[in-house]
Amino acid sequence: MTDAPQSLDMTRSSRDHHQLGDQLQAWLVGKVGPTALVSSISGTSANGMSSETILFDASWEVDGATTDHHLVARIAPDLGDVPVFPEYDLGKQFEIMRVVGELTDVPVPTVYWHEPDTSHVGAEFFVMSQVAGRVPPDVMPYNFGDSWLFDEPTERQNELVTNVVDVLAQLHEIPVDHLAFLEFPDEGDTPLRRHVAHTRAWYEFACQGGLPRSPLVEAGFDWLDEHWPIDEHGNEPETVLSWGDSRIGNMMFDGVDPVAVLDWEMVGLAPRALDLAWCVYAHRVFEDIAHIFELPGMPDFLRPDEIVAQYEARSGATVGRLDWYLTYCAVQWGVVFLRTSRRQIHFGEIPEPPDIEDLFQHKPSLEAYLRGEF
Q1: Out of 117, 231, 245, 257, which one is annotated catalytic?
Q2: Is 245 designated active site?
Q3: Where are the alpha helices (DSSP H) in the chain?
Q4: Do residues 97 and 160 share a domain?
Q5: Same domain? 164 vs 67
Q6: Are residues 42 and 177 in the same domain?
Q7: Over the stretch 109-125, which tens digit does the pLDDT of each residue have?
Q8: How far apart are CA 152 and CA 168, in angstroms?
Q9: Which residue in 242, 260, 243 sits closest to 251, CA to CA?
């Protein structure tokens, strides 16, 4: 048996939190007045490697009475920290959380302010409420064992999956005429074509500056083009809101009930199958890693056929097989690993390998998908 790693944690930021606290207080005074006080500022070891998440407490007077608030600042990453994405549209993230909170029962934090002026903390940011709950951990991955989700009985794990499917169905019910601001500006004559073009541009960003290209990711894009998901009439599936990063690690739970849906960096417009596939495939990535370390994992959790059946029963929509969308997710994860691996190399956490694809922890499943093995 291969020994499991003692830690998979990665450096998320080089920012100084004490300085951030002073900057946030100065900014908050301009928002709510001179009584504003920021305290207890800290980073978080929670999931996610994109925007920086800062937790802080704040108080200020309202009508002569002091009010206390537990807040979160989501800050665009410093360019020197090797960000995952080429750009961070925090205004779009702020707006979609507001829309979801207004139009659905999907639990999202209350959003307070979006600050596009980078002079305050050195980057764009927004502020939202803190939510109490527990998250299926990435570090160590929840399916490695010794996590609250792994220890739940099977029926409770299944209940959590049902609740996650309900969240996705609710998100997909939001009328797209409320969501024009989510459309990607990339070339293409349909939202899905523009979505894939957006991912291609993301891949090109990951290869800038002479960084290694990935023949496997490029073969994946070719496969997607050759197997484009259209029906006998040449039509793509219906376009809906796509959360984008729809994995359970981006949700907080009270027991197995969702209490917060987080991380909207990848939000856009796409067929409903994409969110289902991302939810399934994110778990598959962790299963691939568990297999490397000869751990039992959770092979019966988030199975694609069961997810599709539950979703179709809940939504009344037909999804069909996820094969194309699973492959697209695997291609996107290739780009993610290009950037997160580059970040680890930048911070001296791992050496640069002879072949960058050696760092693709999902390589076996992507290769299998390209062979048509699902």
Answers
A1: 245
A2: yes
A3: 17-32, 90-103, 148-151, 154-172, 191-206, 215-226, 273-292, 304-315, 323-346, 363-370
A4: no
A5: no
A6: no
A7: 999 999 999 999 999 99
A8: 22
A9: 260
238/91 same-domain check: no
Any idea what the Cα angle at residue 53 is, between residues 275 and 205, rounded to 5°?
A: 60
Quick one: 112 and 189 in the same domain? no
Cβ–Cβ under 8 Å, residues 271 and 244: no
Per-residue pLDDT tens over the stretch 174-233: 999 989 999 999 999 999 999 999 999 999 999 988 888 999 999 999 999 999 999 999
- Residue 111 sits in the same domain as residue 234: no
Listed ranges 171-175, 208-212, 360-364; the one with the highest mean pLDDT: 171-175
Question: Phi and psi (nearest 5°) for 4?
Answer: -70, 150
What domain count does the chain have? Answer: 2
Could you list the residue range(s) of the whole structural domain that residue 330 is in? 142-370
Q: What is the pLDDT of residues 22-81, one digit of tens each?
A: 999 999 999 999 999 999 998 875 544 567 899 999 999 999 999 999 999 999 988 888
Structure tokens at 9: 């944690």
- 280 contact partners, CB below 8 Å, separation of at least 6: 302, 303, 304, 307, 322, 326
Q: What is the pTM of this model?
A: 0.93
Tokens in use for 124? 């764009």
In a domain, 293, yes or no: yes
Q: How many CA atoms lie within 13 A of 340 on its CB side?
A: 18
11, part of any domain: no
Instruction: Check whether the bond before 251 is cis (ω within 30° of 0).
Output: no
Q: Enter the tokens of residue 234.
A: 């040449």
CA distance 42 to 313: 43
129, 153, 181: which is the final residue of a domain? Answer: 129
